[in-house]
Amino acid sequence: MGDSGERPPAPLARTAMAFVLAGGRGSRLMELTDRRAKPAVFFGGKSRIIDFALSNAINSGIRRVAVATQYKAHSLIRHLQRGWNFLRPERNESFDILPASQRVSEHAWYQGTADAVFQNIDIIEDLAPRHIVLLAGDHIYKMDYEAMLQQHVAAGAEVTVSCMTVPRMEATGFGVMAVDETGRIVDFVEKPADPPAIPGQPDLALASMGIYVFETRFLIEQLRRDAAHPGSSHDFGKDIIPHLVARGGALAHRFETSCVRSSMEASPYWRDVGTVDAYWEANIDLTDVIPGLDLFDRDWPIWTYAEITPPAKFVHDVAGRRGEAVASLVSGGCIVSGASARRSLLFTNVHLHSFVKLEGAVLLPEVDVGRNARLTNVVVDRGVRIPEGLVVGEDPEADAARFRRTEKGICLITQAMLDRLA
């Protein structure tokens, strides 16, 4: 077969830039975000929440990435510097960390999501990407952004908004897109009591995922227009997107057409782990025989900063003092010493001492659990030292008096809470 000499069209991701908004506090995670921004919160045994958006960008073929940070950003910035410094300018790649630094005004930090991009227009213009893929840095999902870029260009849209299909009455907590038969967004309603249905699917609605694709020059025009508007809150969801919907230039992209699933994943997976309950559930769900999210998918790896740790170790083998873990995830550097863990997730360098019993426990890195402790349905913050004999998860009133206990009975434990008991 002869060679025509024509090159196939290059992937759009090659000339796109991913701009990740990672400045959110995540106050509903309570004390988990006292010292770190929500995107820097640990997830899944060795990752941080932001690793999912960044991994999606890299796996999609995007090689220009920027991350805007603001709230308590040190932990996040340190993670980004350690784990995401492999993008190299000499390979036409870039990775920029953009803290709020009053670059536009001496009095203005980032005032909203749109303002966070507006304040960095000069950096975007220097890199000159053809398209901007705007991402939230605080959701758990796997997605190929190339498919969304292709739809955006083919349709000639001003903005394409990624949406997930949800049962209509479960959409009351989201921004909901009303669309016509062509997928054009005709209305955008924030947290509606009666969400608009998808045409032809009366029981379903389209909820915004906070993922947007723009042609770069058009986005810059819109950001400058919005910045000059004194009544604007300078937010994409509240200002930019509704304006473009009213112009008729907004297109909905169905998440199910671009979500990445291994053979083990039955349905599209997206989670906002924005509460302690949701965070615990999403982590514990990973211990299922077939979890909704496949972290073992080698075709779409979740990149992160990987510490050099020894293998996990299980010691002692006598009745009542056997190091064991059942239906659990145990990360590198862990020592399970005569302790039992069931349906639990242990992050890096966790140490369980003899006669400890865990059930439904999410232990962040470097937690040390003293002898005879019993922990049920807990999230334990990084570096906490659980004293010998502590019992949590068996007496609701005692738990609520000592720790942060949710309506669903999950206890969040921090070192400061334990120190107050001493």
TrEMBL record:
Signal peptide: none
Keywords: ATP-binding, Carbohydrate metabolism, Glycogen biosynthesis, Glycogen metabolism, Nucleotide-binding, Nucleotidyltransferase, Transferase
Domain Nucleotidyl transferase: 18-287
Reaction equation(s) it catalyzes: alpha-D-glucose 1-phosphate + ATP + H(+) = ADP-alpha-D-glucose + diphosphate
Keyword Transcription regulation: no
Pfam family name, one: Hexapep_GlmU
Stored InterPro entries: ADP-Glc_PPase, ADP_Glu_pyroP_CS, GlgC_bac, GlmU/GlgC-like_hexapep, NTP_transferase_dom, Nucleotide-diphossugar_trans, Trimer_LpxA-like_sf
GO MF assignments: glucose-1-phosphate adenylyltransferase activity
Protein name, UniProt field: Glucose-1-phosphate adenylyltransferase
Enzyme class: transferase
Pathway assigned in UniProt: Glycan biosynthesis; glycogen biosynthesis
Known function: Involved in the biosynthesis of ADP-glucose, a building block required for the elongation reactions to produce glycogen. Catalyzes the reaction between ATP and alpha-D-glucose 1-phosphate (G1P) to produce pyrophosphate and ADP-Glc.
Family from the record: Belongs to the bacterial/plant glucose-1-phosphate adenylyltransferase family.
Subunit structure: Homotetramer.
Positions of the record's site feature: Could play a key role in the communication between the regulatory and the substrate sites: Q70, W109
Enzyme nomenclature, EC number: 2.7.7.27
Domain Glucose-1-phosphate adenylyltransferase/Bifunctional protein GlmU-like C-terminal hexapeptide residue range list: 310-413
